[in-house]
Write a structure and sequence with these properties.
This protein has 252 residues and is α/β, with parallel strands linked by helices. The chain is built from 10 helices and 9 strands. The strands form 2 sheets. Strands 3-2-1-7-8-9 form a 6-stranded parallel β-sheet, with helices on both faces. A 3-stranded antiparallel β-sheet has the order 5-4-6, with helices on one face. It is elongated, with a radius of gyration of 19 Å. Bound molecules: ligand BJW.
């Protein structure tokens, strides 16, 4: 594995004092959580927009709720894998900001201290009514297929995630931008790089002259633009990168 790693990327990582890691569903795939757009993805045969959108929820709340309930069960049983663990462990040698599109909470479970969850958290619910905070809480244990429970105000509860056409949590893009500006290197792992505004973050880094290292078994729209792109599974490549960086002469 180490032999396939770009030497320049390993040296850049070994010298870095600050890293931003942008992660996507692929990073949790080795924890047993299917990705969105892969062959075995959650949305095989069903358009993502039909489930993860306010319109989809309005059309068929029970179906959308059942989909989330089944994912919550899978996520509750999942554990961080070596990709999550490596990012947490890198904090021993540099400042690490994890900017994740994942809603599963596995980066925090692995011990990463600074995690910006761009698309919210599937572990929480909130009221679907804009501005109402009465329904905030943990995703309830309900049998799959039940209609979503109601908030005290009468509106349906929904997962506290960001659906298509919705704004990201307030201030989170500013926080991600600030972390990017201070980064020596940006690692982009396990994302198809097609969903915005997350997909724009590595492009902003490249424009600012910050090197971007992509890790993905498949090519993505970012691949031809990235400074380095490694084909492989995050759970293998990230530990190998860390070990190779540790082995560099003068590594801290
Ligand atoms: C491995 C691996 C292994 C496998 N190791 N790798 C600019 C241009 C065009 C459109 C837009 C734009 N700006 C905004 C938009 C609209 C829209 C958008 O981006 N649409 C595109 C699809 C075109 N964006 C939005 O609506 C966003 N809101 C917004 O911009 O607000 C402002 C606004 C409002 C109104 C109008 C206009 C602007 C919100 C986006 C919310 C996305 N939400 C979801 C669902 C979250 C809740 C849930 O989990 O259910 O987020 S969609 C889904 O996609 C989820 C993911 O976080 C996101 C990204 O997916 P990800 O993580 O990349 O997963 P996959 O499956 O796509 O890819 C996995 C990758 O891993 C693959 O590459 C594999 O090869 C790889 N892999 N195993 C490493 N072991």
């Amino acid at each position: 594995m180490t032999g396939e790693l770009p030497g320049e990327a390993v040296r850049a990582l070994s010298r870095a004092r600050s890293l931003v890691a942008l992660t996507g569903a692929g990073v949790s795939e080795e924890s047993g959580i299917p990705t969105f757009r892969g062959g075995d993805g959650f949305w095989k045969g069903v358009r993502p927009e039909d489930l993860a959108s306010p319109e989809g929820f309005a059309r068929d709340p029970a179906m959308v709720w059942a989909w989330y309930a089944s994912r919550v069960s899978a996520i509750r049983a999942a554990r961080p894998n070596p990709a999550h663990d490596t990012l947490a462990r890198l904090e021993r040698r540099m400042r690490v900001t994890v900017v994740t599109q994942n809603v599963d909470g596995l980066h925090r479970d692995a011990g990463s201290a600074t995690v910006l969850e761009l698309h919210g958290s599937i572990r929480r619910v909130r009221c679907h009514r804009q501005g109402c905070r009465d329904g905030d809480g943990r995703f309830p244990d309900l049998p799959d297929g039940d209609d979503p429970p109601r908030c005290r105000c009468g509106e349906r509860l929904r997962p506290d995630v960001v659906w298509f056409g919705e704004m990201l949590p307030e201030g989170i893009l500013d926080a991600a931008g600030e972390a990017l500006r201070g980064a020596d290197i940006v690692l982009v792992a396990g994302t198809s790089s097609v969903v915005y505004p997350a997909a724009a973050l590595p492009l902003a880094a490249l424009e600012a002259g910050i090197p971007v290292l992509e890790v993905n078994p498949e090519e993505t729209p970012l691949t031809p633009l990235a400074t380095w792109s490694v084909r492989g599974l995050a759970g293998r490549v990230l530990p190998a990168l860390r070990e190779a960086a540790d082995a560099e002469p003068g590594a801290s």
